[in-house]
Structures are given as structure tokens and as C-alpha cells.
Amino acid sequence: MRKLLVYLKDYKKESVLGPLFKLLEASFELIVPLVMAAIIDRGVAFKDKPYILKMCLVLVLLAAIGLVCSITAQYFAAKAAVGFSTGLRHALFEHMEKLSFSEMDRVGTSTLITRMTSDVNQVQNGVNLVLRLFLRSPFIVFGAMIMAFTIDVKAALVFVVAIPLLSVVVFGIMFISIPLYKKVQGALDKVLGITRENLTGARVIRAFNKEEDEIKSFNGYNEMLTTAQVYVGKISALMNPVTYVIVNGAIVALVWIGALRVEGGAITQGEVVALVNYMSQILVELVKLANLIININKSIACGNRIQTVLELELSIKDTGISDVPETETSHKDTGVSAEKPAGTEKEKETSGFAVEFSHVGLTYAGAGDESLTDIHFAVKKGETVGIIGGTGSGKSSVVNLIPRFYEATAGSVLVDGKDVREYSLKELRDKVGVVLQKAVLFKGTIRENLAWGNGSATEQEMSEALRIAQAKEFVETKEEGLDFEIEQGGKNLSGGQRQRLTIARALVKRPEILILDDSASALDFATDAALRRAIREMEGETTVFIVSQRAASIRHADKIVVLDDGVIVGLGTHEELLAGCEVYQEIYYSQFKKAAGGD
After folding, report:
1. Judging by beta carbons within 10 Å of its beta carbon (0-12, 13-18, 19+), is residue 264 exposed, middle or buried?
2. Are residues 258 and 399 in the same domain?
3. Measured by CB atoms within 10 angstroms of the end CB, which terminus of the chain is less buried, N or C?
4. Pairing of strands 384-389, 559-564
5. Does residue 336 sit in the same domain as residue 304?
């Protein structure tokens, strides 16, 4: 949490002035009981109305000055806290944007959203409270006790007894409550987690008629949260009655001792009233301080969780420099000669390979076994490569290595004869257009979504991309055309329409390498065939990777890679694989009648 305070560096002035004005307000507050004592002892006792009026004006003046100080302190504290949280959010978001798929998988989307929203808000609230109250409350407590001693030492001894008793009760309940509040927060996280699952998976829940089961599950977690909150609430609720018993007891003692001291002529009646007021101030400030410390603890816990995200080490660093010497290119452990991959720059440029996988292995973070093992093949510029295999065979993992969404843990991936680790991420990803399995569109117009691929694209270029992606027809049916407003996530479009627009977005980019990762699963066979035909007929030498579970989608590819459990079990054309690859035969004949084998 301490490391996060660096985001307050631009608000040093506000961080000093906020507490300073709060202390000024507290100072004026400590003067009020003395003014009241003067009113009683001089104005009321001698029926001096002008004096009473004058001192009442002094009280109004003190209140006005205190109000101004309080508002000023609040302004500076709020400015510092909001500025702090703004800087923290910027840093957190910037760091999240740098996280690779590996870190995203490990941390989880919901966790990152929680850190960005509620955790940052809690830390902001904590900073605000600290700047306003952390010095004020102790100042009032000790200031009131000192002022009491200036009035009468013997009567002030009641404070010496009362303050420790109040502190024991207030802080005792606080320290008992803090771990319980952490448990409540954990139970709340579970309730929020199951709520989020139900909202995102509402269609699946209804499809399997699991509403009652989910309601039952939610009620169970909600009951746990309610029980925890009630329990900690009961403990926290003890604070007020116990503290008021102690304070009222102390006030009784003060009045009794004060009466004896007044009778003896040691102090006046007004001073007794002042002592009682100081005791009341101490009670209020101790309760405030306890609540403040609880809030600070919550803020520290949230700050530590934010710090954990900020300290996540990036597995993919945008250095543009290979992590290994050029002559080795991480082939040391594969038994492959390092001479070919290294070569000379001229050899690399004339190799003709757009993408080359050289004995690549991939092990996901936290996984025991390799997800990909010894992936080795090369693709020439302009070729279309189909990648097929069963569920979990590693199809997406292979293509995700090209733009470095994941980092190969063995071997190397080369683009245009150069290791992808030698590119800057921007340079590499400018070469690649990726359409992921899940079609994601952003709130805005169709034009704005297509412009993600190329911000300077003309309307003609967008129209051509829509034509190739088989999306032009449905876009033209919209009255607004390219200016049709898409809702968040593309909720006002069908699954096939979303997929075609994401393909068009990638085509607008005019990439050297186009990756279609099962991106036509929602399309019918006719539209899928038209899409593939249009991509084959595109101008230029775009290298295309098509990942699919449909044999029809990749049968006309120049080269087909067949994967099984992360290993290449077949590599060749459709006819070659149909003649000699059992896995491909099994996939193909499960989708087509055997009589069509020679098709």
C-alpha cells in the first residue's frame, strides 16, 4: 500500500493544507467550551446581557471560521484523494493493457474489474478520511484533556481514567471487528461472483432449466453473507452503548467532583460545564477515530490487492530484442541445429516463409504438461493454412503464438524470417490481423468499429472489407448504414453478424498475416464458403490461417495442419491427409458420408 502513495506526489500541497485546516477547525472547537464557561460565569451569573450577546457573537464567529476551515480542508482532501485515485486508475489500466493472455488467465477478468472499481474507490475514500480526520481526532482527544487540566487538575483526573477505558472499549471492538469484516468481504466477493456468473450465463441457465438450482446456490451464499454481517454488526453495535455508559459515568463523576470543587470555591459552575463538554468531545472523536481506523484497514487491504496487480511481472516484455542470442534462438533444448534458424539476414529475407514454427513448445503458467509439443512447419507468403483438430488439441494455442499473445516456452516462431521476440509488439501486431473465437464489438457505430483495424480507412475500403467478410448485405439493410449504432458487446446483432463484422474489422487493417480462429462457427455453410472464396480472391499476398473444427472450412487450404493433444499428427493437403492421416479421416468422415471421401 505504501508504494501507492507515489500517486500523491503531485498533490503535496493539498496533502499538507487539508490536515492543517482541519487542525485549525479543531482548535476553534476546543475554544468553544471556554466561551460557554465565560457566558455562564460572567453573563448569566451577573445577568450581563450585553456580555452574553457579545460572547454569542464570538460563538457564531468561531462557528463561521470553523465552517470555512472545514470546507477548505474538505476541498483540499477531496482534491488530493480524487487526484490520487485518478493517477492510480490510469497506472492500473495502463498496466492491465500490457498484461499478456497468460496473466489475464491467471488473475481473471472479474478480479481486474474489482481492483479497478471498488478497490480504487475504497482506497480513495481512505485517503480522504486520513487527510481530514487522522490528525484531527487525536488532536481533539489530547487537546480536550490538556484543556481540562488547565481548568482544574483534580477534576481532570476523571479524564485520565475515562480516556483509557474508552480507548480499550473502542479499539478492542475495532480489533475484533476488523478480521470479521474481512470475512464479510470474502463472503460478499462470493455473492458478487455468483451474481456475475448468473448474469453472463443467463441464456445457458435458462437453456438447461437451472434457474431453481442457481437461486438455491445464490440463497446459500447470500445467507452466509447475511449471517456474517449480522454477527459483526452485533459486535460493532456494542460500541455505542458501552462507550456511552463509560462517558455518562465519567460525566456523573465530573458533576459530583465539580460540585464539590465549586462548593469549595476552587472552580466555577461554567468551568464544570466546560469539563462536561470536553468529555463529550472526547467520546465523539474516539468513536470517529475507531471508525476511521476500520476504514483505513479496509483501504490498506484494497490497496495491497491493487499493488499485487501492479506488481504482476509481465511474461511478454515489449523490448523488441530477443531474449536469447541470435545464434541460439532457443533451440538449445530441442536438439535442433542452431545454424538454420540463425542464418544471415539475407537468407532470412529470401527464405520466402511468412511464418515458421521451429520445434515450438508451449506450457501454460501453472500447467504441469506442455500444451504444444515440437510444433514444426513453415508457411510461404500468400498461402492459406488450415488448422484442425479435436477440442483441446491446441489449435488456438498455435496461432496465438504468432502475435505473441502467449510466449513460446521452447523453440521459436519466426515471421518473415525474424524471431517474433525481436519485433516490438506494435511492429509485430501491425503485420497481423486476428479474429478471435469470441466475436467482440464495442459500443459505437459500425464505422467506428471497423476503424479499429485502420483509423485512416476510407469508406470504399470499409465497403470492400464488408464485401469480403459477407457483411455488406446486412449492413446495407440498416437505414443508417455504416453509422448504425452497435450496443455494448454487439447485443443488437446476431452471432453471425458479429462474426462477419469482426472479420471485416481485421480485413480493413490489410494485414500481411490474417488469423481466423474459429471465427465462422456461427455462419451457415453457404456463407462460410462464400467468405473463404472471397478471402482466396483478395489482392496481395496475405497469408491466411484458418482454425476450424469444420473440415469443409479448411479442405481447400494450401496446407492443413492436423493437431491431436498438442502434437502435429498430420501435415499436407486435403487429399494427402485423407489418404494417410487417421485423425483427419476420423474428423472428415464424422462430418461427411464416407461415399464423399473422394470429394
Report:
1. exposed
2. no
3. C
4. parallel
5. no
Domain range for 135? 2-310
DSSP state of 507: H
Residue 572 in contact with residue 560, Cβ under 8 Å?
A: yes
| Residue 232: CATH number of its domain | 1.20.1560.10
Question: Is the same domain home to 303 and 338?
Answer: no
On whether both 306 and 336 belong to a single domain, the answer is no
Query: From first to last of its 599 residues, what are the pLDDT tens digits of the chain?
Result: 678 888 998 999 999 999 999 999 999 999 999 999 999 999 898 889 999 999 999 999 999 999 999 999 999 999 999 999 999 999 999 999 888 888 887 887 777 888 888 889 999 999 999 999 888 988 998 899 899 999 999 888 888 898 899 888 888 887 888 788 778 877 887 888 898 889 888 989 999 999 999 999 999 999 999 999 999 889 888 887 888 888 889 889 988 998 998 988 888 999 999 999 998 888 888 878 878 887 887 888 888 889 988 988 887 777 655 444 343 333 333 333 333 344 444 444 445 689 999 999 998 877 778 899 999 999 999 899 999 998 888 999 999 999 999 889 999 999 998 999 999 988 998 999 999 888 888 999 999 999 988 888 888 999 999 999 999 888 988 888 899 999 988 888 888 899 999 999 999 988 999 999 888 777 888 888 898 889 888 877 889 999 988 888 888 899 999 999 999 999 999 999 999 899 999 999 988 876 444 44
Considering the domain boundaries, does residue 318 fall inside one?
no
Calpha distance 394→531 (Å, rounded): 24
CATH number of residue 589's parent domain: 3.40.50.300
Contact present, 532 and 547 (Cβ < 8 Å)? no
Whether 221 and 362 map to the same domain: the answer is: no
Domain end call among 244, 276, 310: 310
Number of independent structural domains in the chain: 2
**Cα-to-chain-centroid distance, residue 232:** 28
449 contact partners, CB below 8 Å, separation of at least 6 = 441, 442, 486, 501, 505
Q: Which residues contact 356 (CB under 8 A, 6 or more apart)?
A: 377, 378, 379, 413, 414, 417
Residues 541/416, Cβ–Cβ less than 8 Å: no
Instruction: Name residue 418's beta-bridge partners.
Output: 415
Q: How many CB atoms lie within 10 A of CB 334?
A: 17
Q: What is the grid cell recorded at 20?
A: 492543517
- The helix/strand count (H/E) of the chain reads as 23, 12
Nearest to 352 by CA among 543, 540, 510: 543
Residues 6+ positions from 176 with CB-CB distance below 8 Å: 235
Count Cα atoms within 13 angstroms, Cβ side, for 459. 4
Spatial distance between the Cα atoms of 426 and 522, rounded to a whole number of angstroms: 30
How far is residue 289's CA from residue 166's CA, in Å, rounded to a whole number?
Answer: 12
